[in-house]
Amino acid sequence: MLFVGLIVGGLPAITKKVKGKTIRLGHILVCVLFFAVVAGLAMLGEQEGSAADLSFNLVNIVKLFGVGVVASATMVIPGVSGSMMLMLMGYYNPVLNTINDFIDNLVQFNVPGILEGCKVLVPFGIGVVVGIIAIAKLIEIIFRKFPEHAYWAIIGLIAASPVAIFLMNGGISVAILSVGFLLGLAALAVGIFISLKLGEE
User: Fold this and answer.
1) Residue 47 pLDDT more than 50?
2) What pTM was computed for the model?
3) Helix ranges (DSSP H) in the chain
4) Under 8 Å CB-to-CB from 103, ≥6 apart: which residues?
């Protein structure tokens, strides 16, 4: 719920960009399309982390490169969470665990462990660098030529992200007014507050 709050709290900063402007059919279509893509990935994808194959082969190297590109691209889009996209692709926890293991092995100077981590982190890292350089430039061009369409696409992504999180976690099963429910509401409020404050910066 904290994560959902952080995502939802970023929405007002984006909606300000299109406030007062004429809403055209193209804007609605691009918003719905991006919403459907994110929600669809969550509905069709396997449980977070279970779909990620980190074994060392050519196919997985290409996959990790692609995941790195997508993750870095979404990180440079205003209001969109790169972590959320990694979760949707099923790579958030596997990559995070690999980074943690790599750091531990580095501290202990465990060479086999370091090399094992490099099999995952090197193609992923190269993808991140390529994404930041190439995709960021592409996104800059899109924002310059089609700013309103770009912002409506982001609105669709942000609106779909909480839906995707709930779908990936089997929905909400906590009883209303239970301790878990109240803690969830508090976490949601904290996340929204933090995100709104960051959006003002």
Assistant:
1) no
2) 0.63
3) 2-8, 11-18, 25-44, 58-75, 82-89, 92-107, 111-130, 136-145, 147-168, 179-200
4) none
